Predict the 3D structure of the following.
Amino acid sequence: MIDVFLVPENTTVTAKGDSEPLDISGVSNPALLATLSVLKIVEQESIEILFYTSADGTTWEAKPFASLPQKFYPGEYPMLLDLSQTNGAKFVRAHWEVNRWGRGPATPSFEISLRVREIAAELLQETRSKAASRS
């Protein structure tokens, strides 16, 4: 079971960047839960997380397969990463874009972490069954 931090806890981010590649070739279920934790943020700035896949860990797809929209406030932001549509993907990495506007320093500053966990197939199936019964 995968349970790792693509961005370690209490990491200070001041510019765009990329996480280390995460080997997903051994996952038993093509669904991962990514949780962005924004611990500190200054007003008038934003952070956006994009997820890319690769077959070899060096050449990355041109377009992200998932993205977590811009965040402006502290908090925890979970996102389901469905890898079932990513043909031949063996690696995932996160890329972040940061933005700062308004008065004050021009350099953005965030304190974040990004955790990725594999979801048990049984839990995912149970969640899908509940969603289907509601519709």
Q: What stands out?
A: The CA atoms of residues 24 and 90 lie 5 Å apart. Strands lie at 3-13, 17-18, 22-23, 31-41, 45-54, 66-71, 75-82, 91-100, 110-118. The mean pLDDT is 89. The first strand starts at residue 3 and ends at 13.
